[in-house]
Amino acid sequence: MSALIASDILSLLPAWVLMHAAALLVVTPLLSGPIALILSRGRLAWVWALGISAITFALSLVLYAQVLEHGSIMYVFGNWAPPVGITYNIDALNVLVLLIVAGMGLLSLINGLPSVMQEIEPKDQAPFFAAYMLCLAGLMGVAITGDAFNVFVFLEISSISTYILVAMGASKDRRALTSSFNYLILGTIGATFFVIGLGLVYMATGTLNMADITVQLRENGDSRVIRAAFAFIVIGLGLKTAMFPLHTWLPGAYSYSPTMVGTFLASTATKVAFYAMVRFIFGVFSTGEPFDGALLELVLAPMAVAAMIICSVQALYQMDLRKLLAYSSVAQLGYMLLGLSMGTAAGLSAGLLHMFNHALMKGALFMGLGIFGLCYGVRRVPDLAGLGKTMPVTAAAFTVSGLSLIGMPLTAGFVSKYYLIIAALERGWWWAVAAILASSVLAIFYVWKMVEMMYLRETPRAKSRAKKAHPKAPLLALIPLLILAMANVWFFFDASLPKGLTDAAAAALLGGGAS
Amino acid sequence: MNWTPELGLILLLAIPLGGSVGVIALSRWPNLREAATLIAGALLLANVTALVLAVDGGARPSTTLMQVAGGMALNFTLEPLGAVFAALASALWLINSLYSIGYMRGNKAKDQTRFYLSFTVAIAAAMGVAASGNMFTLFVFYEALTLSTYPLVAHNGDEKARRGARIYLSILMGTSIGLFLPAVIATQVMAGSTDFLPGGLLAGNITPVMGSILLVLYVFGIGKAAIMPVQNWLPNAMVAPTPVSAFLHAVAVVKAGVFTMLKMSVYIFGLDFMRTLPASHWLAWIAAISIVLASLIALSKDNLKERLAYSTISQLSYITLGAMIATPLAALGAALHIIMHAWGKITLFMCAGAIYTARHITNVSQLKGLGKSMPWVFGAFMVGSFSIIGLPPLAGAWSKLLLMMGSTDPINRVFIGALIISSLLNVAYLLPIPVNAFFGKAPDKPAKPPTAPRLTVIPPLITAAGTIVLFFTIGPILDFLRPVFESGGMP
Known about the structure:
The complex is a heterodimer of chains A (about 525) and B (about 500). Helix content of chain A is about 80%, strand content about 0%. Chain A contains 21 helices and 2 strands. Chain B is an all-alpha fold and about 500 residues long. Chain B has one domain. Chain B contains 19 helices and 2 strands. In chain B, a hairpin with a 3-residue loop joins strand 1 and strand 2. Chain B is globular and about 70 Å long. Chain B starts with a helix and ends in a 5-residue tail after the last helix. Chains A and B meet through helix 17 and helix 18 of A and helix 5 and helix 6 of B.
C-alpha cells in the first residue's frame, strides 16, 4: 500500500534526482555551508539553511520511498566498482537514521530562528548557520556511506562543526567554551581510537569498503589485529555515542551550547554515532561469536543498565533544566544500548525504535525549554514556576513529551519500552526488565519535578523576569514543538513507519524476522 | 443515527469529554459551566442506563477502538461487572456534581474551571476502565485516571497539597509502572493476549508458580486498591477538596482499583485457577490484615477525613479479600461491596464536607452537640455509618453477608473472624460521631449557627436514601451479576 503510493510519488520526480538522490543528500548541505558564510546576514543565511534543510529532508524521503520499493539501494560514485571506489549503501537502517537527522534538523532549524537571533551576535549568525549545515552534512554522510574511512571523515566533519556550534554559546554563558573544549578533547580521542581501529582493519584486510571488510573477515577468520581493531572502534564510537561511562562531555555540550544546537544535537548526534556502532558491531564485524558474545553481555549490557539507573538518578538531582535533560539522554542511550546488547533481532529492533522515539521526545523537550528560555529566561527548575498558566500551549506540549519520556501509554515512549521489555523477556533477561522499569520510575520523578513546577507553583518572579510585558511564544518556534508533541502521540497509535524500518534493519543485520 | 450498544460504548468516553470541552468553552460563565457538567452527567447516566439494560438482555457490546503496536488493541467490551461499575460511577457523578457546586461555591474555591475540567476527564477515564475489553486497555485508562486526578488532589496548591499530591502520584504511578505493567506484558507474552476471557485467560496456560508471581505483581501493582503496604497514597490524597475525596477516593479511583482486582481474578486468572494458586491464600491473609489494621488506625485518627480514608482502606480490602478467596460467593460479595460501600462512603464524605463548609471543623472531637443545628447532615451520616457497619435494612448488609458465606471453607474460615472484628471496629470508629453530635453537649453556642448550603446537604440525603433502596432492590442486582461468577460470565 504505502509502497504503491511511494512509487507514485517517485514517478513524479525527474530521473536525475532519483538516480543521484543519495549523493545529493550529502553534497547539497556540504556545498551550501560555505555559501551561507557569504550571505553574511543572519536571517538570509537562515532562509538559505532552511531551504537546504528542506531539500535534504525531501531527498531523504525520496530515499525512503526507494528503499520501500527496492529493499536496499547502492550508489556507486563515478562508476568505480565497490572495492575500489566509494559506495553508498542505503537500507532500512540508513533510511531510519537519515529520516531522523534530516527531519529533526529541519524542525530544530525552524524552531531555532528566534533563539539564534537572541543568543548569537549578528556578525556570528551566518557562520553559525554555515557550521550547522556542515554538521548536518557530516551526520548525513556517516549515516549513508558504505565506506569505513568515509565514516571517519564525516564523523570529523560533524564533530568539528559541533565544537564550533557549542562554543558559540559563549556569548550567553562562558562555560560553553570549557564545555566545547572538553568535548573537543574527548571527541578527538574517540575519533583517534576509531581511526586507529580502521588502520588495523585496513592492515589485516586491505580494504575499507564495509561490505568488503565483512567478506574478507569471513574468509580470513579473526586474528589479534582484528580483535584490537574491533576494541578500538567500539571504544571510539562509544565515546561519540556518550556510552556510559564515556559520557562526561555530553551534559556540558548540551546545556551550555546555544538553544538550537542543544535541540539539534540531542536529537541527532548521538543517534548517528549509535547507528555507526550498530553498523560496525552487527554489520561490518558480523563474523560470528568471538566478537559479539562477550562484548555484548559482559560489557555493553552492564554499561547500559548502569547508565539507565545512575544517570536517571543524576537527572533527578539536577536543578539545571538542560543538564537534567542531558543526563536523561545518557540514560535513554542506555535503553538503546541495552536493546543492542541483547544481540537478538527483537532487541535490536526495540533499541532502534527507542532511538527514533527518543529523538522525538528529547527534541520536543529541548524545544519547549528553548521557548521558555526565550520568553522568560528559564534555566533552572524553579524558573518554570507558573508557566503552565502563562504559556499553556508550550507547557502542554512539554508535558506530553515528558510523559512520552516516562513511557506512559498513549505516547510513543511506551511503545519502544514495551518492545524492549518483550525482547528482554524473550532473551530471559529478567534483571533487564527490572532495570527498565526502575529507570522508568525514576523518570516519573524527574519529569514530574518539572511538571509540578509548571502547574502548581505560582511565583510572581517568573512574571517580573519577563523581558517584555506579555511575552508570547513565537509561532515559528511553537509549530515544530507542536508537530513533535503530536508525533509523540501519533507513533503510539501507528508505529508502523519506524517499526517497519527497525524490523527490516534488525532482520537484515541479524537474520530472521523480529516479532 | 440510532443508539446501539456499540455506539453507547463510544459515548461513554465521548460524553464526559464533550463535557470537558463545554467546561472550557463556558469557563467565563460559572452557571453555564456547571450546567455543562450537569448535562454531561445526565446524558452519561442515561447512556449507561441504556447500556445496563442491553447487557441485562444478554448483549455483550464490543468495539475495537484501534489496533496498537505489538498485537495489542484498545478494545471496549461491556460485561455485567463493568456495567455495574459504570452505572455506579455515572450515578454518583451526577449527585456529586450537585454537591461540588454547593461545596466549591460555599468555600469560594479558586481555579474552579480546572476543577470541573479535571473531573470530566477523570470520569471519562473511569468509564474507560469500566468498559475495557482487555487488561492493556484497562491499564491505559487506569494511568489516565491517575494523571487526570492529580490536579484535583493538588487543587489547593499549598505546600501540604503539593506534598500529598506528590505522594499520590509517586505511589500510584510507581506501583503501576513498576509492577502492574510488567504483569500486563507478561500476561501478553504468556497467553498471547490480555483479553478478559470468561473462565480465565491464564487458567491452564501457566504453572502455579508463575501464576503466583504474576498474581503478586498484579495485586501490589494495582495500587488504587490500596492493599497494605501500598495504602499510603489514600490518606495523603485527603488534602483534596471534599467533593474530590467523596467521589474519587470513595468511588471512582479506589473502586477502579478493586474493580481491576476483580476483573483480574475473574477474567484473567479465572476463579477456579485462583483458588489453586498458593499465593492467593497468602494475599488473602494480607488483605485480612489490612482490613483489621486499617480499622484500628482509623480508630486513632481525630481528623474526620483521615478517619474515613483509613476506613476506606479497610473496606477496599474486603473486596480484595473476596477476589483472593475466589469462591463464587465471595467474589459476588466483593462485587456487591463495590456498590454498597460506594454509596455508604460517599454519604459520609459529603456529610464531612457539609460540616466543613458550614463550620470549618475538621476534627471528630469538635463535633459534639452539632447534631441539633445540622440534623439532616448527621442523620445522613448515621445512615451511612450503619450501612458501612453492615446493619440491615441498609445496603452494606448484603455484601458482608455474601463475603462471609463465601468464606465457609475450613481454610477460609479465619477470614470470617476478620470481617466480624472489622465490623465491630466500624461501630467503634463511626458511630460515636453522630451519637456525640446528637447527644453530646456543645461547649459554647454561637448566636446564630451558620448552616451548610442546601446543595451540600441534599446530595448526602439522596445517597443515604440510596443505601436503603439498594437493600431492597438486591434481587435484580444479584440476578444481573450472578452469571459472571457462576456460569463463567460472557456467553
